[in-house]
Design goal:
Layout (H helix, E strand, L loop, with lengths): L1 H35 L7 E3 L5 E6 L8 E7 L2 E9 L15 E3 L4 E3 L8 E3 L9 E6 L2 E7 L5 E10 L5 E21 H4 L5 E3 L1
Antiparallel strand pairs: 1-2, 1-12, 2-3, 3-4, 4-5, 6-7, 6-10, 7-11, 8-9, 9-11, 10-11
């Protein structure tokens, strides 16, 4: 009788262990699949060297085709891009697959797009940032980690092709952040940029 009960007990225990292991294996299989292909189908941005810049994201705003979230010295910022030639003032065509760094714009206290600059766009949950284009150079300006302040702007650079200074007449007041740091985007990730998988 004892042997019969012990046999049933061991059989039941073995059946429980097999069921628990099967459930755990299913969880491990799901986790391996998730980690093997974390971004299937996600559009990605690549620079002129073919290096991955990041996953393409869209945040509210206008004047750009998309953007990426960059980690700049531990600070997450949004950097927008547009098709090359998208905003041409001469009516020229746009590129099919070439992108350039562009948006959001930087604001200046002066009326000639020089001097003290401020970041006045905030996009998403990231540290506010702005891009200034001067010729073929795109510089990313990162806002200081502080509360925004009401600032009177005299100008900003219009993101046309070529960019031009947009003078504020009368000057425009808005909430903005002083600049903490800058990074040359065209040196870090040269143009033209391309979308891929």
């Amino acid at each position: 009788m004892f042997r019969l009960k012990l046999g049933w007990f061991l059989s039941a225990l073995l059946l429980c262990l097999v069921a628990i292991d099967a459930a755990a294996e299913e969880g491990r299989r799901d986790e391996r699949h998730h980690h093997a292909h974390p971004n299937d189908g996600q559009a990605r941005l690549y620079d002129a060297r073919g290096a991955l810049v990041g996953d393409v994201v869209y945040v509210s705003g206008s004047g750009y085709d998309g953007g990426v979230v960059l980690n700049v010295r531990g600070v997450f910022v949004f950097a927008g891009f547009s098709r090359v030639g998208k905003l041409r003032s001469d009516g020229g065509g746009t590129a099919t697959d070439e992108m350039m760094w562009q948006y959001p714009r930087l604001a200046y206290l002066s009326e000639n797009c020089s001097g003290t600059s401020y970041v006045y766009y905030e996009r998403g949950i990231f540290r506010p940032s702005a891009i200034e284009r001067r010729g073929t150079t795109a510089t990313l300006y990162i806002a200081r980690d502080t509360i925004s302040e009401v600032t009177q702007f005299g100008s900003s650079i219009y993101d046309g092709d070529p960019p031009s200074c947009d003078r504020g007449a009368p000057p425009h007041s808005d909430r903005a952040w002083p600049v903490e740091s800058t990074i040359d985007l065209t040196q870090l990730h040269p143009e033209p940029l391309r979308i891929g998988r």
